[in-house]
Fold these 4 entries.
Entry 1:
Amino acid sequence: MRIALVQMKVIAGAVDENRRRGLALAREGAARADVVVLPEIWTTGYALRDVDKWAEDVEGPTISEMLNISRKYGTYIIAGSIPLRKNEKVYNGAVVIGPDGNVAAEYRKIHLFSMMGEERFFAAGDRRCTFNLNGVTAGIAICYDLRFPELFRSLTQEGVKIIFLPAEWPAARGEHWHLLSRARAIENQVFLCVVNCVGEHKGNPFYGHSMLIGPSGEVLAEGGEEETILYAEADFALVAKAREKMSVWQDRRPEVYL
Ligand SMILES: NC(=O)CCC(=O)C(=O)O
């Protein structure tokens, strides 16, 4: 399965420009891959005070155009996250679009990033999200969720072989980005597809370094700190191979942990 990791430059508050560029990059990726993934809140960036103004539902201009792209190219699109309006609340929400051009799943960020006051602007999600990716069970988490291994464990318990993580992660914590992403892949023996943005916010650069990580922690593709589309192959047979080689899952002792 060929994945396009859209590591785009996000400018806080420049919604029209971000949307125009994000859609163009998604079109480019969709022409060359089976799955396209965008970063976290890529339409608004960290203009958190304005997310209510810019929030859209799945019929809004961003997702409806993503549905057209996916229908035209027959690709899955994980439309990063956008401020997503649902039942009169605004969530930091990721929408998964199937190759038939319909919404296949929605994930609303569970762990809001209190260090930046996200909880003042978004409602928190309270549900995990898995979906069928061409016969493979896949899961989603968003950015700060990466610090909560329990979520990734539960997704693995549900049978996922790949977890997608759109992010807006700063260069200041680049080491954490690498360590946590690889640890989540290694401990669960699953693929992690982590897609970050580039650019800066109030003088603080975003880290980029989007990656596809294999189920033994191998970095199969990694971006730099520039806007780019990374293309990478996920061979899901590697999951069974990693688990045959080292039976971490069977060796767990859950009865002792809680
Ligand atoms: N947008 C985020 O969730 C940022 C998370 C982050 O910077 C961190 O966990 O560190």
Entry 2:
Amino acid sequence: MSVLVTGGAGYIGSHMVWELLDHGEEVVVLDRLSTGFDWAVAGAATLVVGDIADQELVENVIREHEVDSIIHFAGSIIVPESVSDPLGYYLNNTVKSRSLIESAVRCGVRHFIFSSTAAVYGSPKHFPVGEDTELRPESPYGTSKMMTELMLRDCAAAYDFDYTVLRYFNVSGADPEQRTGQSTKGATHLIKVACETATGKRPHMEVFGTDYDTPDGTCVRDYIHVSDLVNAHYLALKRMRNGKGSLVANCGYGNGYSVLEVINAVKDVAQKDFEVRVSGRRPGDAVAIVAEAERCRQELDWKPRFDDLNTIVEHALNWENKLARRNRE
Ligand SMILES: NC(=O)c1ccc[n+]([C@@H]2O[C@H](COP(=O)([O-])OP(=O)(O)OC[C@H]3O[C@@H](n4cnc5c(N)ncnc54)[C@H](O)[C@@H]3O)[C@@H](O)[C@H]2O)c1
Ligand SMILES: O=c1ccn([C@@H]2O[C@H](COP(=O)(O)OP(=O)(O)O[C@H]3O[C@H](CO)[C@@H](O)[C@H](O)[C@H]3O)[C@@H](O)[C@H]2O)c(=O)[nH]1
């Protein structure tokens, strides 16, 4: 029996592979290497290079590796890019997920975990945001993920199949042992960008909008350490294997930090000042979003280990320094 990790050469997927291997699971990764890297996949996992919508390939992999569960990370992830390329996002995130789900159903895969996002909520009026809040995505990215959630709900009702939808808030940090981290080229995520600026890879960075209705005028997010996030996936897998059925749960800590607070944390931890320029709002950005995180703790018995912004930043910086050393060698 093995677990198929789609997008396992990417940032979060490569951490998932280590989490599964650390728990003694057999792992097969399917990734087309569009934003991921073959070297990011742990050597003990099998890497198959290909697209999730190649049904012949996917179904062969499922049968050959006796896949009982799929953890589906593969997708396109940049909110503003989805605003300018909605068709690309609906294709890669929605249409291709449908194809993967169909392959799973045809091959009798029993458990499916899906990377959803806080972006399905848009900018909710009340905080923290519980799972039963109305879904009102404000970007094609969020809508593309919401549509996949709905397909999973309907498929679980029709076929012999359980699913877990995990709605991630802002994923950041890196493996504390530095076995993997975020290596994305041309990264757009705030903590990654700030760490690249702190380590001199970028001359300066920008703050997108200081005129929001928030305490310091910048957007507020709930940053979750990637190692805690992938641990929630492992617990969700165990829960489904124990016959507990389908689940939709937020993955965040319930703490909101503004863009400026995050940048200051990076400056403090790196002990470095760097240039920060103020620019206009970025299309598709929600104003503020913070998770109600109780369901994940209760249903999965999830006990986060890195719920601390400075620790997240420290691990992200360690990985950035490792990448910089690697590039110099
Ligand atoms: N990073 C975050 O803050 C965040 C937050 C919420 C949800 N998510 C979701 O988590 C998942 C993983 O995100 P990430 O940050 O690791 O991104 P990433 O870009 O590092 O990883 C995505 C991986 O999927 C692969 N991929 C993309 N399309 C594919 C396809 N059609 N077939 C095969 N492989 C394909 C890419 O090569 C890459 O390795 C995504 O689904 C994303 O929407 C991420
Ligand atoms: O150089 C930068 C980068 C970001 N930001 C701001 O920082 C905040 C966070 O942005 P970012 O790190 O890009 O994350 P989000 O746009 O919130 O989206 C992330 O978090 C979502 C969940 O909340 C996921 O679904 C997405 O995949 C993931 O990209 C936003 O207000 C951005 O405008 C800046 O001001 N400057």
Entry 3:
Amino acid sequence: MDLPRDFLKKMEGLLQEEYESFHKSYEENNQHGLRVNTLKVPLEEFHRISPFALEPIPWTAAGYYYQESDRPGKHPYHDAGLYYIQEPSAMAVGEIVAPQPGEKVLDLCAAPGGKTTHLAAKMKQQGLLLANEIHPARSRILSQNVERLGIKNAVVTNETPGRLTERFPGYFDRILVDAPCSGEGMFRKDPQACAEWSLENVALCADRQLDILLHAGRMLRPGGRLVYSTCTFSPEENEGVISRFLKLVSGFEVEEVRAYDGFATGRQEWITEGAATIEKTIRLWPHQLQGEGHYIAVLKKTDGRTVEKRQAAEMFREQTRLKDYFEFAKAALAAAPQGKYMLFGDQLYIIPEQMLSVKNIKVVRPGWHLGTVKKNRFEPSHALALAATPNEVKHSLTVTSTSPELEAFLRGEAIKAEGEKGWYLVNVDGYSIGWGKLAGGVLKNHYPKGLRRHGSW
Ligand SMILES: C[S@@+](CC[C@H](N)C(=O)[O-])C[C@H]1O[C@@H](n2cnc3c(N)ncnc32)[C@H](O)[C@@H]1O
């Protein structure tokens, strides 16, 4: 690999006798990982059905190494949301955030959604997961991944940390700042990060990271936990940002992180005036484990201001407009889902109970999308399909992952099928993948146009 000379010089100075083995790691290929989405398939079941040879990743309960030649991204189980393809070291972050079902959790820099989907699996569809991404196009990709993995309790926003802080002071139990960084830890995987690297950019990233972290600190409730992570090695962006934060803000302490084999500690000596507790933060090195470079710190808020009174999400008052939805639910679902229904224009959602008002906030996905209220009928959404199981609907059609029917369905074609008229949840080997509408022996295709496949795979 053609690595930036200034980068190598800096790493040699930092790592000294360890530098040689670090440098050698660039001669090896990066490892590939997938994380099973336990919202859709229990782990033991995935072990039984997995078409791929899998090796467990030690620091993640649902994470596995796979062989690149298996191409899990092409398998229909990917479209059905059974797993998320994620760099192995990145899986340590969600484990360390460790959100509990029912909590209020913010993922502040969330796209494309690797960590959001990991946090969601741990929350088991309960509580509020606010996934935010500042870049509009990236926030839409994040939203698609939330949909694909069948997540019901996530709200996706497209905001600056500053604007979220105005709405959510002292609100969250846990916050993840997976900060934009110089990406030094990803050079093996992402040659573009390598091409864009410079010492100036490292300094720029560090200032931006501190700014994001300061906002995050204000949104944390007293007693809550703030996890900061990067995929870079530079001490300025890691130990440096945490030390600067601790100097600027009182009432936070660094918490010990559970270490696995191969995890190393943060390095106090690499920054000037580094807090001694910085050694409780962790570093993942590509020459010490099978994964790329990462840094993770956990900060606990030991005190805080009294929390201001907040505005609850607007109540929904238009029950009459839901008549067609309830008729659809009666005909197609085993039971209408419980929750706080809300209409945004003609789009119907169930929003997480703990969500606050979204007025003046750029919302990409306000909750679990159920479908569109049309004139005299209701059309169910892809998000409703992906989060449903065959026993939650009245009619379902099972196809196998290798069947021509599934290929046709994913291409957007109609399928021949017999049965009662109505909406059918199409599922691959029992895992929901989309809607079809049956009439006259033909299942009309409702697989979203943007997701359809072309040719075979
Ligand atoms: C490391 S990536 C996040 C990866 C994501 N957590 C995942 O696991 O898939 C950092 C994200 O921060 C976003 N970002 C960039 N500048 C930002 C800012 N000033 N405030 C908040 N987020 C920012 C980037 O667009 C990027 O999507």
Entry 4:
Amino acid sequence: MNLELLLKNIDCLEVKGEPSQKITSVEFDSRKVAPGAVFIAQRGLHADGHRFIPAAIKSGAVAVVCEEYPVPEPSGVALVKVENGMKAVGQIASAFYGFPSRKMKVVGVTGTNGKTSIATLLFRLFRELGYNVGLISTISYRINEIEETASQTTPDALKIQQLMAKMADAGCEFCFMEVSSHAAHQHRIAGIEFAGGIFTNITHDHLDYHKTFAEYIKAKQLFFNALSESAFALTNIDDKNGLIMVQNSKARKITYSNRAMADFRCKVLETHFNGMLLSIEGKEVWTRFVGNFNASNLLAVYAAAVNLGQDSGEVLTRISNLEPVKGRFQTIRSEDGKMAIVDYAHTPDALKNVLKAIDGIRTGNEQVITVVGAGGDRDKTKRPEMAQEAILGSDKVVLTSDNPRTEDPAQIVKDMEAGVEPQWKNKVVSIVNRHEAIKTAVLLSRPGDIILIAGKGHENYQDVNGVKHHFDDVEEVKKCFGIED
Ligand SMILES: CC(=O)N[C@H]1[C@@H](OP(=O)(O)OP(=O)(O)OC[C@H]2O[C@@H](n3ccc(=O)[nH]c3=O)[C@H](O)[C@@H]2O)O[C@H](CO)[C@@H](O)[C@@H]1O[C@H](C)C(=O)N[C@@H](C)C(=O)N[C@H](CCC(=O)O)C(=O)O
Ligand SMILES: Nc1ncnc2c1ncn2[C@@H]1O[C@H](COP(=O)(O)OP(=O)(O)OP(=O)(O)O)[C@@H](O)[C@H]1O
Ligand SMILES: N[C@H](CCC[C@H](N)C(=O)O)C(=O)O
Ligand SMILES: [Mg+2]
């Protein structure tokens, strides 16, 4: 593709050099540049991409997009000046791949918790409705039945456009994707034309990156602020920031709620261990999900589907057949009547919600034993809060490791212990080794008890110093229960 054509829809300040250069690929990482590439320099957290312009040219880049021209200015390559290198990646990649998001309806889901659940359920629902569909989520990137394990919740802008181009080629009419706050802040979603956005909730997480809660809210607002007038912005008004999230959006605002007056409403009529009876828009529907937060997620799925033009009756019927997402309230029963729940709750709010859901279905005679850790190289302030939530909702708690990454796992457990008040000490035991922690929880349990294993959900590894060691909570608990696969 010709450089001039590529730059047509992009906010560029100036172009120097040959504009009719033929471009054969787009890269923002100098290590991946091949002859014929356009290299886009972006300023990151650890490095400044501008430093790698000479390396990119040496590897054959024929054009360079940057915020500042290199000194001395190289000859023989086109130089394009932009205000924001991060934004330019999405805009240029989108043009390079033929604006794939215009060829389908893309819906983004943002919020602290519930993104994977909603995006995945929308994907499954629309598959059931007979469409070709794409999915970009924490667990996997999917194009109909073709699945690739995900490396990030929302990958970099180039990868997103490459995935969307493949989706468009496969005839996808819809794409459901998670929009993490990191992605919104780093403009990974630049160049995507969204048909709609969904907000779930915002609670304590990622303050290591955003520093303050206000900045975290602002990052998520960026997504809604960029939606066009023709898009919808579906927001959960049970969250106190639900309306604030969409206040500066040009999109059509739609609200949903389990508690208040809203455009879409839902009520939990009955809760059992294997599901809930809901009333959605006054119609009763049996679902295989547990917990008020899941009622909220299913309502968002319903409201989005209806706003995407689907028949409401058909959508409700399909919703009753949907199954929970892997590692989200996944239950495993032992032969002697113990029940384990593997769940991806890795924030204080998620933990509180899951334990509340368990509380709503327990008889009161059994013990609830929770195994939980907190991630290394992530928000440290959530550690004591997670320990507190676990204790408040459980009879016994085992504090353990969850992806220590480059931190000392024993120190992370100590940080969690800081949330344990003296009167709770006899409820809590710390076992850094997660395998031993799960084994201990099972040993402490009696028939009828509920063991919540929180934080890792679908993950099948323990990340220690950048090395991912195989570890799977479901496998671990099955071994302890003597269940063979
Ligand atoms: C904290 C964070 O988000 N970091 C992301 C960021 O990295 P960075 O700012 O450190 O990049 P950098 O190393 O400073 O490099 C700057 C630039 O120089 C370039 N470079 C660098 C070296 C070189 O030799 N040549 C070169 O050209 C790089 O390609 C880059 O363009 O930009 C990179 C490229 O897009 C991302 O891969 C990287 O994600 C890292 C791997 C990460 O772990 N991110 C996590 C925290 C994350 O994104 N999580 C969210 C939310 C999860 C959730 O709660 O759901 C997610 O969406 O997954
Ligand atoms: N609507 C919700 N409100 C609060 N908690 C929820 C909600 N939905 C799910 N959860 C809890 O959060 C956990 C993670 O859910 P999910 O994977 O859908 O969230 P996510 O937003 O994709 O998380 P991540 O930021 O890691 O991508 C679940 O296992 C459950 O414990
Ligand atoms: N997307 C989240 C996932 C956290 C999952 C938990 N198991 C952990 O490693 O902290 C993050 O990267 O913060
Ligand atoms: Mg997710």
